[in-house]
Design brief:
CATH superfamily: Decaprenyl diphosphate synthase-like
CATH architecture: 3-Layer(aba) Sandwich
Strand content: 5-15%
Bound molecules: farnesyl diphosphate
Helix content: 40-55%
Number of domains: 1
Structural class: alpha/beta
Distance between the termini: 18 Å
CATH class: Alpha Beta
CATH topology: Undecaprenyl pyrophosphate synthetase
Shape: globular
Radius of gyration: 19 Å
Number of helices: 8
Number of strands: 6
Order of helices and strands: EHHEHEHEHHEEHH
Length: 244
């Protein structure tokens, strides 16, 4: 008997390797990022089609501003063009798009495009696509602490009421489930300040494939691997087997 596949409710991905993909072809890094957008589109389609309800993609970290100016501007332009090009298509497929991260450093035009995309797709419920841009896990935690501190100062909340649940709700993505499966392409095995709090119990899957080459078959391999994992949340395997 074949074991039933377990589909993660929330997948998050560090899409790494665009630069190396381009370099191998003696092309500028921007070319790799453009190919990366095609892989992004494929992955959104794939994960929506298998029933994943939340997909969070790390598109630009708070630390990426320190890349050469030319690369930063080409990435900003690519975000703008991709949103203009794909918002309608994703909307028609029932996908809600949200940005997580500090948007204030983006140009006014990009912020406006982000608002338009978020507003247009707000009511969609098939899958939530969260794009982490100018995002950092530490920023997220500091931001949540500041929010809760303000609520305490305003006497809307007492310090004793701050627990695991109140804290997680104050974080980005606090209105949805934590990621079940974390994928990083490109061969590096680190979190790079992605969803630090939210990844507490995620299953980690690292693969060497560079992001532009990450195919549907590779995505399926990641899902198969996830299906084989036993999530214990601190319990013993015997306890997990008994409780199912
Ligand atoms: C990491 O590769 C990738 C990025 C910093 C950018 C990721 C962005 C995209 C794939 C575009 C997504 C677009 C939208 C609209 C979500 P890297 O440059 O660090 O690669 P390297 O490690 O080989 O240098």
């Amino acid at each position: 008997m074949t074991a039933q596949a377990t589909i993660p409710s929330h997948v998050c991905i560090i899409m790494d390797g665009n630069g190396r993909w381009a370099k191998k072809r003696l092309m500028p890094r921007g070319f790799g990022h453009r190919k990366g957008v095609e892989a992004t589109r494929r992955s959104v389609e794939f994960f929506a089609s298998v029933g994943v309800r939340h997909l969070t993609l790390f598109a630009f970290s708070s630390e990426n501003w320190s890349r050469p100016n030319e690369e930063v501007s080409s990435l900003m332009e690519l975000f703008m063009l991709s949103l203009q090009k794909y918002t309608g298509e994703l909307h028609d497929k029932g996908i809600r798009i949200r940005f997580v991260g500090d948007k204030l450093l983006f140009s006014e035009a990009l912020q406006q495009q982000i608002r338009d995309t978020e507003n247009k797709t707000r009511e969609n419920s098939r899958m939530s696509l969260n794009i982490a841009a100018n995002y950092g896990g530490r920023w997220d935690i500091v931001n949540a602490a500041r929010l809760l501190a303000q609520q305490v100062a305003d006497e809307e909340l007492s310090p004793e009421q701050i627990d695991d649940q109140t804290f997680r709700r104050a974080l980005s993505l606090g209105d949805g489930p934590d990621p079940d499966l974390f994928i990083r392409t490109g061969g590096e095995q680190r979190i790079s300040n992605f969803l630090l709090w939210q990844l507490a119990y995620a299953e980690f899957y690292f693969c060497d494939r560079l992001w532009p080459d990450f195919s549907n078959d590779d995505m399926q391999v990641a899902l198969d691997e996830y299906s084989r994992r036993q999530r214990r949340y601190g319990k013993t395997s015997e306890q997990v087997e008994i409780s199912g």
